[in-house]
Write a structure and sequence with these properties.
With 176 residues, the chain is α+β, with helices and mostly antiparallel strands. Helices cover 59% and strands 12% of the residues. The longest helix has 28 residues, at 27-54. α1 crosses α5, α2 (58-69) packs across α5 (121-141) and α3 crosses α4. It has two domains: 1-55, no CATH class; 56-133, Arc Repressor Mutant, subunit A. It contains six helices and five strands, in the order ββααβααββαα. It starts with 13 loop residues before the first strand and ends in a 9-residue tail after the last helix. Strands 3-5-4 form a three-stranded antiparallel β-sheet. Strands 1-2 form a two-stranded antiparallel sheet. It has helices at residues 27-54, 58-69, 76-83, 87-99, 121-141, 147-167, and strands spanning 14-16, 21-22, 74-75, 103-108, 111-119.
């Protein structure tokens, strides 16, 4: 029986074999685990498809996506914040992408310690091809839901996000 389809009853039966949640667990915990389970499954599939189709890792794709949104480039510190990784991780990703001619790194005028990173024309072309395929993969993965179900889920998650922004004032809103 797939973990996402396991059902519980009043006896405390296991609801989700992967997380070992039981029927007596709070609904919020069950919801969190279900969202996380869906996210991990989709992310793992996207990782595998990016590697098989384009020979690129998800972190490198994510970095190129951030740079694609900012044609003039971003400081490495801003990339680190947006990607939610350390500066060292951004440096490693940048080094790889520079070596492949997909990004260029230049010193920031007036600040000898800061660098600006932007996509090269080759990087932009490669990212555009990957982004188009990525969008189709996501569309395909979510195609088992009716449009009204996707719309309702999107609205519910939008309300959750708004609630979290209110409850967690220190959280930054770097994602959509």
């Amino acid at each position: 029986m797939p973990d996402s389809d396991a059902k519980g009853d009043d006896s405390g039966a296991v609801l989700d074999l992967a997380s070992r949640l039981r029927s007596e667990h709070h609904q919020s915990l069950k919801l969190w685990q279900r969202m996380l389970s869906c996210t991990v499954r989709i992310e793992n599939e996207i990782r595998a498809r990016l590697r098989a189709t384009f020979g690129i890792t998800l972190p490198r794709f994510d970095m190129m996506a951030q740079l694609n949104r900012e044609p003039r480039g971003l400081k490495m510190s801003e990339l680190s914040r947006r990607l939610m990784v350390t500066g060292g991780n951004v440096t490693g990703l940048t080094d790889q992408l520079v070596a492949e001619g997909l990004v260029v790194r230049r010193a920031t005028p007036g600040d000898r310690r800061a660098y600006n990173v932007r996509l090269t024309p080759k990087g932009k072309r490669q990212f555009d091809a990957m982004a188009q395929e990525h969008e189709q993969w996501i569309t395909d993965l979510l195609s088992g839901m009716q449009r009204d179900e996707r719309d309702a889920l999107y609205e519910s998650l939008d309300r959750l996000k708004s609630t979290l922004v209110t409850c967690l004032p220190s959280a930054t809103d770097a994602s959509a």
